[in-house]
Design a protein that fits this description.
Order of helices and strands: HHHEEHEHEHEHEH
Strand content: 5-15%
Strand order of the largest sheet: 4-3-5-6
Radius of gyration: 21 Å
Number of strands: 6
Helix content: 40-55%
Distance between the termini: 60 Å
């Protein structure tokens, strides 16, 4: 179907969002056209505001609307534990568990030689400075369980171990509700490695 130019441009723009293909972009565009103008303006304004007013925390690298993020400002957090993650979305995932009470450090990616990303492109220097200045006694590595995440975790562990810190890695294994028969060998071996007393 051929749409007028403004609608075609909107559909094209929406396709730039991750996971949004042509049909979903078309559905979003037509939905936006059905809304009252003030709601569309409010959505557009909130997008521009989020882009213009969001920055990175000077301490941990997480999203923030101030110089430091809400986690770093929270005096109730355990400052002796730092959870190292690849990106700010990982902080949100960890926070949803409501279990972790320490601080975070966002690396800003993972080591990936194929993409030209080495340790120099990550926020490693900031992590080392933070550990040397602070009172951290444990660093939890919570990078993704893929080749890049594993390489990053191994590199960070190798750099931090000589500092006398306890360096741990989050366990990997079977998802709750998953079936053993459908799990791959790597997932099962990780589940065995991460087993604990009952």
């Amino acid at each position: 179907m051929i749409y007028p130019e403004p609608i075609s441009r909107l559909i094209e723009s929406l396709q730039k969002l991750p996971g949004v293909g042509p049909k979903t972009a078309q559905r979003f565009a037509l939905f936006l056209l059905s809304l009252p103008r003030d709601q569309v303006v409010a959505i557009a304004r909130s997008m521009v505001d989020a882009r213009d007013k969001t920055r990175y925390c000077r301490i941990c690298g997480n999203f923030s609307d101030d110089e430091t993020c809400t986690v770093c400002r929270d005096k109730r957090r355990d400052s002796t534990i730092i959870c190292v993650v690849q990106d700010s979305r990982d902080v949100l995932a960890m926070e949803r568990t409501r279990e972790y009470k320490g601080l975070y450090h966002v690396l800003g990616g993972a080591i990936s030689p194929m993409d030209g990303i080495g340790p120099e492109q990550l926020r490693m220097r900031e992590l080392l400075e933070r550990i040397k200045k602070g009172r951290a006694r444990e660093v939890i590595l919570a990078t993704n369980p893929n080749v890049e995440g594993e390489a990053t975790a191994l590199y960070v562990a190798r750099v931090l171990k000589p500092l006398g810190l306890k360096v741990t890695r989050i366990a990997h294994g079977l998802p709750v509700g998953g079936d053993l028969e459908y799990a791959d060998e790597v997932t099962l071996s990780r589940a065995l490695e991460g087993r604990r007393d009952v």
